[in-house]
Amino acid sequence: MKKIIFLIVLTSLNSFSQKNLKQLLKKFNQESVPYIHVENLNDKDENIVLLDAREPREFEVSHLNKAICVGYDHFDLQKTIQQLPEDKNNKIVVYCSLGIRSEDIAEQLKKAGYKNVFNLYGGIFEWKNKGNSVVNKNNKPTEEVHAFDKEWGVWLTKGIKIYE
To answer: Which is it for the CA torsion 61, 46, 22, 8, positive or negative?
Structure first.
């Protein structure tokens, strides 16, 4: 009986957490770029281009394997385009900490003619929270994730939070 109650409570907390994330993203995003959920992203797929819309200091702590750091504050569309396949139908997934900054970057890519652009729902935090691996600046697996700041860091529930 205790196991059943525990599972009910755990499920409730998980759906509550997901509901809050959904509300948070709805508050900050226009939803102008379709989301791709962590469960639907295969980071080992060679045909997917992963773009990290966090700042270089965040990227250096950890990022999704094979991601390209494009930043946010000093995002350069032309420089980014030079790193992308010529085929504007290639699948591009943009992510940040939670999926807010990445929407802005993804919108710019769509305006530049890229047709298959997605925003990673919940960003690297959700990626890590779901038990997926990240790598550091030396492409070595790490448990560390840059948590941006204490306010946003609450959304990261797994891994080691880094704030510097």
So the answer is: negative
Which residues does 125 contact at the CB level (< 8 Å), separation at least 6?
Answer: 97, 98, 145, 147, 155, 156, 157
Q: Mind telling me the catalytic residues?
A: 96
> Model confidence over 87-131: pLDDT tens digits?
999 999 999 999 999 999 999 999 999 999 999 999 999 999 999
pLDDT tens digits, one per residue of 28-65: 999 999 999 999 998 778 889 999 999 999 999 999 99
List, in sequence order, the alpha helices (H) in 2-145: 2-28, 56-61, 77-82, 101-111, 123-129
**Residue 112, token pair as written in the block:** 């530049």
Distance CA(62)–CA(144), nearest Å, equals 6
pTM confidence score = 0.86
The residue with tokens 């929407």 is 103
Tokens of 16: 């509550």
CA dist., res. 87 & res. 84, Å (int): 8
